[in-house]
TrEMBL record:
Organism of provenance: Ramlibacter monticola
Keywords (A to Z) from UniProt: Transferase
Protein name, per record: CoA transferase
GO molecular function: CoA-transferase activity
Pfam families in the record: CoA_transf_3
Transferase recorded as keyword: yes
Residues spanning the membrane: none
PANTHER family with a match to the protein in the record: SUCCINATE--HYDROXYMETHYLGLUTARATE COA-TRANSFERASE
UniProt KW Transferase keyword: yes
Length: 406
């Protein structure tokens, strides 16, 4: 279904956001706010703009990723090394509810845009700062990308087959986790602002966002000296949960780790002997004999296709699934029924399928009301909103302070 361009709506309608980030962490946070109605003014450098515009696969010279990451935003091209451009940012911040940035600590201060001073100028301003290591501490000045944060946060050590090199998750999960933690921080700060009338600065470090999702990693080390290692496709300490090979070359993910689920699984694969074994009635006993259980399940799946395995396990109410490629996602009826495969129309008239809006709110859902902007598409409109005259805008353009559309 084609997405129509409609006025911004949603639970964050009326919220003014200035986005000064680039690539993933800051822009993903701003995208999430924009999806739910916030007016996001994205500041980009003149010239090439946000580097994400040219990342990965391009269509008509622009990344299709850009169409997702910058939907619902407005673009203003500003040369932040210029004092006049810095003054424009201060004017925007003076009227904003939220400012988001993900530069290395000290970058904003180097542009005479110290967030603490911006908050003093606009006491209601909420500032989100995302960086590799945070705004304080001995590592604060190190360059920190998502992959480094994932490694320091403990995730990369776990993403491997035992004895093999740890691998990347496959997407920039560290950046995205930091973004989502940032959005949570923004919403909490806005909620608190309703009582105090005061904004504040939110400090999110990539490695801490990853570390916050590491479950029992640290307390297990603290209590037992246990260093959790990579477990491949298995779920360590919980059995049975694994990926099992099938006759068509695919894998079936089977999660039979609940006590009653385990008994249904064993009945479904014809191994009631294991299902009724009192030593395997609980997780602790199953973990001790996980190799035996995995071998029994694997022997059963190897003689069946993925579809055949899932049909049997679905009928037995055992959680199971296939490993989806993006082609599987695009063809899946559940994705479509949930509105997760949205169609947008690009400027060249072609349609593009993009991810739908998450989370789903029953009364005030988010949506896409505007395609990702061209570089500087909204520079002049935003300047007029700040009260600048046409003559002043023309002067800023002639001096290279701002860039409008060519």
């Amino acid at each position: 279904m084609e997405t129509k361009t409609t006025p911004a709506a949603g639970p964050l309608a009326g919220l003014k956001v200035v986005e000064m980030g680039q690539l993933i962490a800051g822009p993903f946070a701003a995208k999430t706010l924009a999806d739910f109605g916030a007016d996001v003014v994205k500041i980009e450098p003149p010239g090439a703009g946000d580097p994400l515009r040219s990342w990965r696969l391009l269509k008509n010279g622009t990344s299709v990723w850009w169409q997702v990451q910058s939907r619902n935003k407005r673009s203003v091209a500003l040369d932040l090394k210029n004092a006049e451009a810095q003054e424009i940012v201060r004017k925007l911040a003076a009227e904003a509810d939220v400012l988001i940035e993900n530069f290395r600590p000290g970058a904003l201060e180097g542009w005479n845009l110290d967030p603490q001073q911006l908050v003093e100028m606009n006491p209601r301003l909420v500032v989100l700062r995302i960086s590799g290591y945070g705004q304080t501490g001995p590592y604060r000045d190190r360059p920190g990308f998502g992959v480094v944060g994932e490694a320091m946060g403990g995730l990369r050590h776990l993403t491997a087959e035992p004895g093999r090199v740890p691998v990347r998750v496959g997407v920039s999960i560290g950046d995205t986790l930091a973004s989502l933690h940032g959005v949570i921080g923004i919403l909490m700060a806005l909620h608190e602002r309703q009582r105090s009338g005061q904004g504040q600065i939110i400090d999110v470090a990539l490695y801490e966002a990853v570390f916050n999702c590491m479950e029992s990693l640290l307390p297990e080390y603290s209590a037992f000296g246990a260093v959790r290692g990579p477990a491949g496709s298995a779920l360590p300490g919980i059995a049975p949960t694994n990926a099992y090979p099938c006759s068509d070359g695919g894998y079936a993910l089977v999660a039979g780790n609940g006590d009653s689920i385990y008994k249904r699984l064993m009945a479904a694969i014809g191994r009631e002997d294991l299902g009724n074994d009192p030593e395997l009635a609980n997780n602790a006993g199953r973990v001790k004999r996980v190799a035996e259980i995995d071998a029994a399940i694997g022997a059963w799946t190897k003689s069946r296709t993925v579809d055949e395995v899932l049909e049997v396990l679905d009928a037995a109410s055992v959680p199971a699934g296939r490993i989806y490629t993006v082609a599987d996602i695009a063809a899946d009826p559940h994705y479509a029924a949930r509105g997760m495969l949205q169609q947008i129309r690009l400027e060249d008239g072609d349609t593009l399928t993009v991810p739908g809006i998450v989370p789903k709110l029953s009364r005030t859902p988010g949506g896409q009301h505007r395609n990702a902007p061209r570089l500087g598409q909204d520079s002049e409109a935003v300047m007029r909103e700040l009260g600048l005259t046409g003559e002043q805008i023309a002067g800023l353009k002639s001096r290279g302070v701002i860039k409008g559309e060519q």
